[in-house]
């Protein structure tokens, strides 16, 4: 969803080729020649083949910088700030958010029991990250500054899942984080991709 939403933000045409994960299609050739880890997504752009969603979105944002929504900063200092917050998302936020998404969203859908001790542990870790976000967002509309960038964009998949769980309270209780969440989740590109998911 992260890659599709990036393509939508950049107003780029693309061909979406579904991969059947239930039958193990991603764990066999020819898919393994695209991603040796056997995971989606994969992007093919001419002779370039990329995997890992954040790497793909960075490539799209830089290569097609003049299309659609600018998702990366061109000014070196602003770019540095964007890189800082992309790292925070990948190293701090995602660690807790992905674990909570697994426990509260994915496992119940697979008929597996949620581990309440893990939820409690990672809820506390996410709260610490969101306290830092609250301070940052008190002084800027978005994490990297006044413009929506990949630093904000990369949060969308797990954020979307967590809004349907009790973890939503962590976001709602922080006024600036809450405003930021509402803003980025309402982006037309994200809503379009999320609607595509529901229609599959």
Automatic annotation (TrEMBL):
Database matches in PANTHER family: GLUTATHIONE S-TRANSFERASE F6-RELATED, GLUTATHIONE S-TRANSFERASE RHO
Protein name, entry field: glutathione transferase
Ranges in coiled-coil conformation: none
Known EC number: 2.5.1.18
GO molecular function: glutathione transferase activity
Source organism of this protein record: Abeliophyllum distichum
Protein family: Belongs to the GST superfamily. Phi family.
Enzyme class name: transferase
Catalytic activity: RX + glutathione = an S-substituted glutathione + a halide anion + H(+)
Domain of life: Eukaryota
Keyword annotations from UniProtKB, A to Z: Transferase
Domain GST N-terminal: 1-68
GST C-terminal domain segment(s): 75-200
Pfam annotation, one family: GST_N
GO annotation (BP), single: toxin catabolic process
InterPro entries registered for this protein in UniProt: Glutathione-S-Trfase_C-like, Glutathione-S-Trfase_C_sf, Glutathione_S-Trfase, Glutathione_S-Trfase_N, GST_C, GST_Phi_C, Thioredoxin-like_sf
């Amino acid at each position: 969803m992260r890659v599709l939403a990036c393509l939508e933000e950049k107003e780029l045409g693309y061909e979406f080729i579904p991969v059947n994960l239930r039958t193990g299609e991603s764990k066999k050739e020819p898919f393994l020649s695209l991603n040796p880890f056997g995971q989606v997504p994969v992007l093919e752009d001419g002779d370039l083949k990329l995997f890992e969603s954040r790497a793909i979105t960075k490539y799209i944002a830089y290569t097609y910088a003049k299309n659609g929504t600018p998702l990366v900063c061109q000014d070196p200092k602003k770019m540095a700030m964007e890189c800082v917050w992309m790292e925070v998302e990948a190293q701090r936020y995602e660690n807790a958010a992905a674990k909570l998404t697994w426990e509260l969203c994915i496992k119940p859908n697979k008929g597996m029991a949620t581990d309440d001790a893990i939820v409690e542990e990672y809820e506390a870790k996410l709260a610490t990250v969101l306290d830092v976000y609250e301070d940052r967002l008190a002084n800027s509309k978005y994490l990297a500054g006044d413009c929506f960038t990949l630093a904000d964009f990369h949060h969308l998949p797990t954020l979307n899942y967590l809004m349907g769980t009790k973890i939503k309270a962590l976001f709602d209780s922080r006024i600036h984080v809450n405003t930021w969440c509402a803003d980025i989740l309402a982006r037309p590109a994200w809503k379009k991709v999320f609607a595509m998911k529901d229609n599959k």
